[in-house]
């Protein structure tokens, strides 16, 4: 299968009309995050390892974009670049017209919840969520913290320390923390990875409601094709060695989305197509 942004692999019954030109938000949409030919190389065994190669990725304001791809294809590296934890080796990262993420970080426009949730072990769940307020000198909004903890299914665990919580609960504390300062841009790296299917589905629905209510722009990394299709406006598929953007699909479902869409033929067709693409990339096929 040819994995390219102009692929016409969709067959009868699949949403071929949704296949769009490469990595573009809807026309006329304000671009909030713009990776232009971004490369990232890491030092490796005396040489260099190319983790990302000429990645073009544009995320429109209020868009929800999901990144999927085999392990090691550079998904987290993209998030880390946008969060200012890494710098590009080549190309340019423009954020709302500014060079790099500095302005976003300075003005708390960015919320991040990464794989390594980095909660402070000596603080309670509540205090971990309140931490960004304290660090930045914002008033602690107790109502918002209570609301976020409730949204994340953590009511009753406010006083628990991270080691008293399960892995999934810790992840949810990290998500609540990422939202406490009402960011414009939310970066989520496999936030629901360690959750059981029922909790995951509930949080997907909650996240969608929150995303609409707070007008967030979101970049989500996930290993779940279904989660990506259910949540995102666009799903972007990456390939490894070196990490590249290989394909994308615009997701046509209206919002708010109900779990029933997961049973629709159109959902299944998209899911099959993206899963097949991932399988082929995992098997190392079609690598340039
Ligand atoms: N700081 C670093 N130093 C050296 N190599 C790195 C560093 N960070 C990432 N890499 C390498 O870059 C590649 C991409 O890593 P990244 O963590 O972005 O992948 P990923 O797509 O998020 O994978 P996963 O799905 O397993 O989380 C990997 O081969 C990884 O080993
Ligand atoms: Mg990762």
TrEMBL record:
GO molecular function: ATP binding; ATP hydrolysis activity
Coiled coil: none
PROSITE patterns the record matches: ABC_TRANSPORTER_1 (PS00211), ABC_TRANSPORTER_2 (PS50893)
Pfam family, one: ABC_tran
Gene3D superfamilies per record: P-loop containing nucleotide triphosphate hydrolases
Keywords: ATP-binding, Nucleotide-binding, Transport
Residues annotated as domain ABC transporter: 33-265
DNA-binding among keywords: no
Keyword Disulfide bond set for record: no
The family this protein is said to belong to: Belongs to the ABC transporter superfamily.
UniProt-recorded name of the protein: NitT/TauT family transport system ATP-binding protein
Species of the source: Sodalis ligni
Source lineage: Bacteria, Pseudomonadati, Pseudomonadota, Gammaproteobacteria, Enterobacterales
């Amino acid at each position: 299968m040819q994995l390219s942004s102009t692929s016409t692999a969709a067959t009868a019954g699949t949403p071929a009309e949704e296949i769009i030109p490469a990595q573009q938000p809807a026309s006329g949409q304000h671009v909030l995050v713009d990776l232009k030919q971004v490369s990232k190389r890491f030092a490796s065994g005396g040489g260099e390892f190319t983790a990302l190669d000429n990645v073009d990725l544009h995320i429109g304001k209020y868009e929800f974009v999901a990144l999927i791809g085999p392990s090691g294809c550079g998904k987290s590296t993209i998030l880390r670049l946008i969060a200012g934890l890494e710098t590009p080796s080549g190309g340019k990262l423009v954020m709302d017209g500014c060079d790099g993420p500095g302005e976003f970080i300075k003005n708390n426009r960015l919320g991040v919840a990464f794989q390594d949730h980095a909660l402070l072990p000596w603080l309670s769940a509540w205090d971990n969520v309140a931490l960004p307020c304290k660090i930045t000198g914002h008033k602690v909004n107790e109502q918002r913290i209570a609301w976020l903890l409730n949204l994340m299914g953590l009511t009753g665990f406010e006083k628990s320390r991270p080691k008293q919580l399960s892995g999934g609960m810790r992840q949810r504390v990290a998500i609540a923390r990422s939202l406490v300062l009402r960011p414009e841009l939310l970066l989520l790296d496999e936030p629901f990875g360690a959750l059981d299917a029922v909790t995951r589905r509930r949080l997907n629905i909650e996240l969608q409601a929150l995303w609409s209510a707070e007008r967030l722009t979101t970049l989500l990394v996930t290993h779940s094709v279904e989660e990506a299709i259910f949540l995102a406006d666009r799903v972007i598929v990456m390939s490894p060695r070196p990490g590249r953007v290989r394909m994308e699909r615009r997701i046509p479902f209206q919002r708010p989305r109900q779990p029933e869409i997961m049973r629709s033929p159109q959902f299944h067709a998209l899911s099959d197509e993206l899963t097949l693409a991932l399988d082929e990339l995992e098997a190392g096929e079609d690598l340039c």
